[in-house]
Amino acid sequence: TKGAKQTTLDSKVITAGARTAQQAELDAAVLLFLCTAGIPPTVVDGQEWRRLLVLATKSKYRPPSSDTLVDSLIPSEAACINQQVLKLLTSDSINYATIGFDGGATAGWDSFATVHATTSDQCAFFLDGKSTTNIKHTGECCAEIIKTVII
């Protein structure tokens, strides 16, 4: 009939590019949430988690598995952050940076060493951490850890 409105699917269809962008944005939000809250990646394999995200996004989002988080998303994000930190540390806006080295142990008595940089404006950046369990904590060992991080 004349004047009758015809409903279309245009407002309900998401293009492939938009779906990919939405998937990536939600993956990043899930990653940030889990990492900053200290939640183990295996939580995302639970049915309750998947149901929550499927309901919240009206089935338009497929949450990543813990394997995808651990093997792909977390290393990729860490690499991006490392690139940004190195770019900042080598930029002209930084007058100097001090390299620091520290060690510690977990509750299970596994030892580790960390290397960080502190800039002239007192911003500190974690550069790397290495397990030093079953390794003699000598000056040579410390120097080798620092060299691998700086190079």
How would the global form be characterised? flat
Number of strands: 3
Give the topology string: H per helix, E per strand. Answer: HHHEEEH
User: What Rg, in angstroms, do the CA atoms define?
Assistant: 23 Å
Per DSSP, the total helix count is 4
Sheet with most strands: strand arrangement: 1-2-3
What distance separates the N and C termini?
Answer: 74 Å
User: Uncertain regions: pLDDT < 50 for 5+ in a row?
Assistant: 6-14
Strand content: 15-25%
- Mean of residue pLDDT values: 85
The helix-and-strand class reads alpha+beta
Describe the main β-sheet briefly: 3 strands, antiparallel
Question: What does this molecule look like?
Answer:
This protein is of the alpha+beta class. Helices cover 45% and strands 17% of the residues. The protein has a three-stranded antiparallel sheet, with helices on one face. Strand 2 (111-119) and strand 3 form a beta hairpin. The longest helix is centred in the middle third of the chain and has 24 residues, at 66-89. The chain is flat.
